[in-house]
Amino acid sequence: MNVPDAPTSRPDPAAPATTPGLDRDFDRAAHRYDLLTRLNPGYHRHLAAAARQLADRLGTGHAVLDLGCGSGSSTSALLGALPDATVFAIDASARMLDHARAKPWPQTVRLLHAAAEQLPDLGLPRADGALAAYLFRNIPAGGRDHVLRLVHEQLRPGGWLVIQEYSVAGRRLRALVWTLVCWMVVIPLAFVLRGSPRLYTYLWRSVIDFDSTERFAARLVEAGFIDVARKDVRGWQRGILHTFVARRPVAD
Ligand SMILES: C[S@@+](CC[C@H](N)C(=O)[O-])C[C@H]1O[C@@H](n2cnc3c(N)ncnc32)[C@H](O)[C@@H]1O
After folding, report:
1. Are 234 and 41 in contact (CB under 8 A)?
2. Which of 7, 113, 119, 140 is deepest in the core (most CB within 10 A)?
3. Atom of ligand 1 at shortest distance to CA of 164?
4. In terms of DSSP H, where are the helices of 21-171?
């Protein structure tokens, strides 16, 4: 679906860019994160599909960013779709990154402990593409425009951004499905597996509170992206999990 031009929003300069304490919540959940995502049907398939969206637009041999790489699942998906790419994978949680670092990677993968808000300070080369899988919901609403502008700046002109994110705002039935799945399956499972039910309670709330798809697409346009499009997944997550694709114009 192509997303049309959207109304202008005002960034909130008083709002923090990073959710306070969230890196520590991810730190606490890191030891069970991979197990819980393995139990989530479709998680890796959806990541692979998002990475393919980027690969289809880039071809081979490129520099790409994995923003909020966590324990490396999205990094693996990127390498699967772009085996020749140099990947700069960034995460704010030291423990999530420890789990990523414990996995075998080719020398073309660099794992960096940093928040997305620090992108300009990392001295990275301009990227041909970027993937942000399940990152933006974790950035407070007042900081999202800022981070999108930083990503826009970090991409080369003509570079592509793919964002995978849950959003149910304005869809009551989808919000109900999301709530039932979280409270009847995900949070109890996190409790039983000692996987930090607190993080998964936050996961539920953060999706309920996240931008509508229209609002998030509008943010992309306001940050300077063009060709903004949205694709929805199939199955029970239809209307809940979305893939946004956007491009930095060749000439700004
Ligand atoms: C839900 S996990 C997703 C991990 C990975 N992308 C995947 O698909 O499996 C979200 C990750 O974003 C990280 N994160 C949250 N806020 C961040 C920020 N402002 N900058 C960088 N990473 C952040 C968290 O530490 C966490 O590892």
Report:
1. no
2. 119
3. 8
4. 22-38, 43-58, 73-81, 94-101, 141-154
Instruction: Give a yes or no: residue 152 inside a domain.
Output: yes
Could you tell me if the CB of 134 is within 6 A of ligand 1? yes
Query: Which residue, judged by its Cα, is nearest atom 4 of ligand 1?
Result: 70
pLDDT of residue 180: 94
Task: Report the CATH number that the domain containing residue 146 is assigned in CATH.
Answer: 3.40.50.150
Q: How far apart are CA 104 and CA 101, in angstroms?
A: 8
What pTM does this model have? Answer: 0.89
pLDDT tens digits, 31-59: 766 767 776 778 899 999 999 999 999 97
**Ligand 1, closest atom to CA 18?**
19
Q: Which domain holds residue 71?
A: 22-26+41-168+211-247
Rg (CA), the chain: 17
Question: Looking at the 3D structure of the chain, how many domains does it have?
Answer: 1
Best probe residue, ligand 1, of 93, 151, 154 (max atoms within 8 Å of C-beta)? 93
Write down the pLDDT at residue 61.
67
Q: Which residues of the chain have pLDDT under 50?
A: 1-16
Q: Is 92 a pocket residue for ligand 1 (Cβ < 6 Å)?
A: yes
Is residue 2 included in any domain, yes or no?
no
Q: Is residue 9 part of a domain?
A: no
Q: What is the pLDDT of residue 184?
A: 87
Instruction: Tell whether ligand 1 has an atom less than 6 A from the beta carbon of residue 68.
Output: yes
In a domain? residue 139: yes
| Nearest CA among 161, 171, 156, 138 for reference residue 221 | 161
